[in-house]
Design a protein that fits this description.
two-stranded antiparallel ribbon, alpha+beta, about 15% strand, about 300 residues, elongated
């Protein structure tokens, strides 16, 4: 009796050991698949997932994941190729539009020098206004296509955000006053320094100020925090939460926005912010639109103070 009991116990121990080894091997295979999958998602390579396990179920799982990875790579390639072709087309079209626009302006200048009736002068003024709007849209479209086709590596220099914000607000102060907007500015006493591109930052702040001019009901609060967060907020009855969530979409415009808008201003701001390692988002609550930008701290030892 004791012999059979010992035999059963021995068999159970062997089974437990085998199961333990099996579980260990399955865990190892799972870790291999997870690591290989993460690598394939980030690396531009055609190498597929390979595992050391001989387990048929795990090898079947790896095979099916490889099939989906191949589909994902093909879809990504089509998207990148299509996006590149679209950007090239936009660049070419906007460039081609410049020549006839220049000619139109030339003929308008000649027409204005001729003797015209009051009605003719009114028509010429309308044509010039529409042509100016078309020129502005074309230039904005061209600049956007150039930005999105440029390299993500944006040259950086040490900047003081307090100072750069003040310069941008000063540049737009006339337009703000013309629209009866008096900005309230809250800047910290301590200098907030970041390694960023000066032109890109000026463009971001300028686009946000232009956006405030479009949508503000008469107020604008600009806040810079010591952690590098910048907040532009204003009351607006023109938006809702859905529209606010789409403000960064390319070519999206709100119906009440001013005529001649491409809907590219905030999209450009997002592209430039992300190129410099920052984040930008908008939220709308209690009729207040807030656009928040955050630039994390970086090593300032690569350059001197701005």
């Amino acid at each position: 009796m004791e012999f059979w009991l010992c035999a059963v116990i021995g068999i159970l121990i062997i089974i437990i050991l085998l199961l333990t080894v099996k579980v260990f091997l399955l865990q190892k295979s799972t870790d291999e698949i997870r690591e290989e999958f993460a690598l394939r998602l980030t690396a531009d390579t055609n190498t597929l997932i390979a595992i050391s396990s001989r387990d048929s179920h795990m090898r079947k799982l790896a095979k099916e994941i490889n099939i989906e990875l191949n589909k994902l790579k093909k879809d990504r390639h089509r998207f990148q190729q299509g996006d590149l072709e679209l950007k090239d087309a936009v660049t070419n079209i906007s460039h081609d539009l410049r020549t006839p626009l220049t000619a139109i302006f030339g003929y308008l200048d000649l027409l204005e020098k001729e003797k015209n009736t009051g009605e003719a002068r009114r028509y010429i003024r309308i044509i010039r206004e529409r042509t100016e709007a078309m020129k502005q849209l074309t230039e904005e479209l061209f600049r956007y296509s150039m930005l999105t086709t440029a390299s993500d590596s944006t040259p950086a220099e040490p900047l003081v955000l307090n100072r750069l914000l003040e310069e941008s607000i000063s540049a737009y102060y006339g337009a703000l006053k013309q629209n009866r907007i008096t900005p309230r500015i809250d800047l910290p006493q301590a200098e907030v320094k970041r390694m960023l591109n000066r032109n890109a930052c000026s463009r971001i702040f300028g686009n946000l100020l232009s956006n405030a001019i479009k949508y503000s009901d008469g107020d604008l609060d600009i806040t810079l925090r010591e952690n590098g967060e910048i907040i532009f907020s204003n009351h607006t009855a023109q938006l809702d939460e859905v529209q606010a969530g789409r403000l960064f979409d390319r070519f999206y415009t709100v119906n009440t926005a001013s005529a001649g808008s491409t809907g590219l201003g905030l999209s450009i701001a997002r592209t430039l912010t992300e190129q410099m390692g920052g984040t930008i988002e908008a939220d709308y609550k209690d009729h207040i639109l807030s656009v928040r930008i955050f630039f994390p701290a970086a090593d300032m030892s690569r350059g001197s103070e701005s």
